[in-house]
């Protein structure tokens, strides 16, 4: 079987770290807490953290339209940094996702977007700005869950649409505002200051990393990793389970950005999801969480800001069914045991 890595931080101390199953089935290598796995969409929490951090440093203002900095973006991108970090930028998600598909709206454009997504997953990109050129002129998108309909009419800030591609647009804005690539920003603003040695932009050609093998399907077939440099802040960060948990606590403790209440108090700010976190209450305890899923990855991170508790779970196989998300179920159950 593929593996599950679990870490629990309480009051800054690891009270539990454990690996189960295999990092490499063929070579019978057991998964442990030192293996590096994909964050998948938990990477969006890193993108949100960078946005808040750079706002507080004065490199940008979160209410700035991203295009004020990344002037090469298509003129339709009037969304602010905050709107993109809150999935309110009207940028499409994957072409085949129900919230963004144009199959029944514009079949020609739908085929184009499917081709683009395939190209993105096979291409190494030096930065977000180069990657976003592949899709920044695609029509904006909105989705009505009540009627299950997709529209190409959308006003940034007026509606919510979960978007990995939107975080690439966000990354292009951060790059333009700082003169640094998203790879550099993750390393210089998060990994190095916090001492998170395994946290990095995934570079699949770097074989020095002690990565777990990626698996897919019910038969647990080993998978060749796809390229994720196009979506570093949307789904292209990796680390071991300990550094994932440490990142969560560093955010809670204000070590990445000071105004954590601005994010955790999402309801008062008019959102339940922003800066890479979904905020909610569990048994009377404030919580913020982010899950992720992609090729060879099923992940979940929960932080309880008032309790100084962090729970992290990473699996090196994508979830097979929805909504039976194993990483989420495990993390939430552990949280219930602790609180």
Report on this structure:
The chain is α+β, with helices and mostly antiparallel strands and 339 residues long. Helices cover 30% and strands 22% of the residues. The strands form five sheets. Strands 2-1-16-15-14-13-12 form a seven-stranded antiparallel β-sheet, with helices on both faces. A hairpin with a 4-residue loop joins strand 3 (22-24) and strand 4. Helix 1 (43-57) packs across helix 6 (182-194). The longest helix has 15 residues, at 43-57. The chain is globular. The relative contact order is 0.20. The mean pLDDT is 95.
Which helices and strands occur, and which strands form pairs?
Layout: E1 4-10, E2 13-20, E3 22-24, E4 29-30, E5 36-38, H1 43-57, H2 81-85, H3 107-120, H4 128-132, E6 142-144, E7 149-151, H5 164-178, H6 182-194, E8 200-201, E9 214-216, E10 221-223, H7 232-235, E11 237-240, H8 241-252, H9 260-264, E12 273-274, E13 277-282, E14 285-294, E15 297-304, E16 309-315, H10 326-338
Antiparallel strand pairs: 1-2, 1-16, 3-4, 5-11, 6-7, 8-11, 9-10, 12-13, 13-14, 14-15, 15-16
């Amino acid at each position: 079987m593929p593996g599950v890595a679990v870490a629990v931080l309480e009051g800054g101390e690891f009270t539990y770290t454990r690996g189960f199953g295999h990092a490499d089935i063929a070579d019978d290598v057991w998964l442990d807490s030192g293996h590096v796995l994909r964050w998948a969409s938990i990477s969006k929490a890193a993108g949100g953290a960078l946005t808040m951090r750079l706002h507080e440093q004065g490199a940008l203002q979160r209410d700035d339209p991203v295009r004020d900095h990344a002037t090469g973006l298509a003129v339709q991108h009037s969304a602010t940094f905050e709107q993109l970090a809150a999935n309110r930028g009207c940028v499409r998600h994957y072409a085949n996702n129900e919230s963004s598909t144009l199959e029944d709206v514009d079949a020609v454009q739908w085929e184009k977007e499917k081709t683009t997504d395939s190209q993105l997953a096979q291409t190494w990109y030096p930065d977000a700005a180069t990657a976003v050129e592949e899709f920044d002129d695609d029509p904006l998108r909105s989705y009505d869950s009540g009627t299950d309909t997709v529209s190409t009419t959308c006003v940034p800030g007026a509606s919510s649409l979960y978007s990995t591609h939107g975080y690439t647009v966000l990354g292009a804005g951060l790059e333009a505002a700082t003169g640094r690539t998203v790879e550099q920003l993750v390393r210089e603003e998060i990994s190095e200051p916090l001492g998170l040695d395994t946290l990095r932009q995934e570079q699949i050609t770097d074989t020095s990393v002690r990565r777990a093998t990626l698996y897919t399907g019910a038969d647990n077939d080993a998978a060749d990793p796809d390229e994720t440099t196009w979506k570093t802040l949307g789904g292209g960060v990796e680390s071991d389970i300990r550094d994932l948990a440490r990142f969560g606590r560093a955010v809670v403790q204000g070590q990445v950005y000071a105004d954590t209440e601005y994010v955790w108090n999402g309801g008062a700010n008019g959102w339940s999801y922003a800066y890479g976190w979904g905020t909610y209450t569990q048994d009377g305890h404030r919580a913020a969480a982010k899950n992720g899923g992609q090729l060879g990855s099923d992940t979940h991170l929960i932080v309880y800001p008032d309790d100084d508790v962090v729970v992290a779970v990473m699996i090196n196989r994508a979830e097979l069914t929805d909504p039976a998300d194993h990483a989420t179920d495990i993390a939430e159950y552990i949280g219930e045991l602790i609180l």
